[in-house]
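Running low. Any example?
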Amino acid sequence: MNWPEFGVLVGVAAGAYLIGSFPAAYLAGRLQSGTDVRTAGEGNVGARNVFHEVGKGWGVAVFAVDFGKGAAVALPLGDGPIGRLAVAVAFLILGHAFPIWLGFIGGKGLAAAGGFTAALMPWAVLLAGAAGLLVWLATHRFLPTVITVAVLTFVIAPFTGARWAIMAVALEGFVLTAVKRIIDEPRMRRIEAETGWNRATGGTR
């Protein structure tokens, strides 16, 4: 075993987890209105729940912070070994999804995965984001907007010069967010039943 590289990977994992675990959505809810987003709305510690349950501006701010967390993890490692990136994105999402500060109840990590991907494939994300903005303006729906951006990012990426290995690592982040979504399903359904959250339109108001 390459012990020096192992030590680097441990450091990357610890740093990515700590950055990912910064609970922007929880802090926004508490600071603005005393809301605990773990039990409000859809029960998710993320930007969409804050957007609907705390305030639109706060939701945008949380998205920016979570997106920035992903970029902050990816940027220092973008030119390094692919294995470090793979470890980094895994622990970034783990930190966001299971933050030690919140009893390991966190969000899905979509914004963080998006920021990580944007740092590695900026042109693909920018072009896909423009298309996603059009979808949002037409529908004001979160799910079709996210699907549009995610799919188009990986369709466009090869045409912008992105390496397949980088695309695979970025995809790893989104796969982990999907796994977290599955894990959260029973808890979210219970909370949604209590709060009246509407999955079709988003929000309880």
Observations:
- Residues 77 and 85 are 6 Å apart (CA to CA).
